[in-house]
Amino acid sequence: MEIADIFVLNKSDREGVDHLEAQLQAMLELAPDRDGWKPKIVRTIATEIKGIDELATAIAEYREHFNRSADRESKQVEHWKRRLITLAGELFLERAIAGPRGEAVLDLLAREVAGRKKDPYAAVHELLERAAFTE
Question: Does residue 135 sit within a domain?
Answer without folding.
Answer: no
